[in-house]
Amino acid sequence: GADRNKTVEDGASPVFLASMNGHLDVVKYLVETGADKEKARVGGVSPLFVASQNGHAEVVKFLVDAGADKEQATEAGSSPLFIACQNGRLDVVMCLVESGAG
């Protein structure tokens, strides 16, 4: 089968791209069939970070429930909670705080 963790030039994986665009069913399928939910692209931007940045609360909840690192920061030091706050994503902020993100 296809490599679920293959990346494009900037390091974006299929899970990253699906998370960025809020495609929960695709993220679920990929993670449940062995794709790396933590694989960050260039700059240390993880699927959880980009889902938080873009306000995809259902994807954030799934990734957190699947064990994604809630504290994983980018190379610039931004966490998923930080970027959700910066972008005014209240539903994501609530999800992260309720899951114990600091």
Describe it.
The structure is a single chain. By secondary structure, the chain is an all-alpha fold. It has one domain (14-98): Ankyrin repeat-containing domain (Serine Threonine Protein Phosphatase 5, Tetratricopeptide repeat), CATH 1.25.40.20. 47% of the residues lie in helices and 0% in strands. It has 6 helices and no strands. The protein has helices spanning 14-20, 24-32, 47-53, 57-65, 80-86, 90-98. The chain is globular, with a radius of gyration of 12 Å. The termini are far apart. The mean pLDDT is 95. Keywords: ANK repeat. InterPro entries: Ankyrin_rpt (IPR002110), Ankyrin_rpt-contain_sf (IPR036770). ANK repeats lie at residues 10-36, 43-75, 76-102.
Summarize the structure.
The chain is an all-alpha fold. The chain has helices at 14-20, 24-32, 47-53, 57-65, 80-86, 90-98.
Helices and strands in order:
Elements: H1 14-20, H2 24-32, H3 47-53, H4 57-65, H5 80-86, H6 90-98
Helix pairs in contact: 1-2, 1-3, 3-4, 3-5, 4-6, 5-6
Name the features.
single chain, mainly alpha, Serine Threonine Protein Phosphatase 5, Tetratricopeptide repeat, globular
